[in-house]
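Hello, quick one for you while I still have it in my head. No rush at all, and the record is pasted right below.
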Amino acid sequence: MFERKLLVASPLAKARRNPNSMKAKILSSASKSFGSYGFHGATTRMIAKEAGVDISTLYYHWGEKQDLYEAVVTDLDEKIRHKLEQIEKIVKDQPLSTRFEIAIDRLCDFFFDRPEIPNLIQFCYFSKIRPDSNLRFKVPVYINNIAIAIAIGTSKSRDEISTKAKTRVLAAFNSIFNFVSAENMFRPMLGISRPEYRVIVKDTLKFILIPAFTSMPDLK
């Protein structure tokens, strides 16, 4: 007689299943705290305070700090992958300039609505983390895939795109990250509101990047 195995949902699966749950509330607060201070700078007490719960409630729902951080990274990774897959479908069969315009619009909106994502990515890749650590994002893989999709459209195979072309496409994504992460510094310098900042960032990126990329012979 076969034994029936009980499949227990992970805390992240439970949080996703019920966005109004305590697990989801703590996860959201952790995303903001880790996005503001990084893994080492954010504390569980800080996250608990942000969520409006006591520290024992946080540990009950999520366990140790690293468990919570890994859930945040996994959750945001999935959101990034889903968004980039959406963009890849939208830009298919479009002219190169249109592909870049769509990508800039959609990615700016996505990251401005979720500033913790570029902040966390920058913390991950520009801070010292032990080589054996599993606290890193998979996002470079996703961005590389969408970069290739935007670069090649439907006229070339992925193997035909040069490293130089892919690197320049990735530079465009890095520009978006920088504008989002540095908003609190750049926007007061410009003396404009947040909605105005989002518009001018998109316009500036299109002004600089689209002519630059459409002039490249290996991107058409």
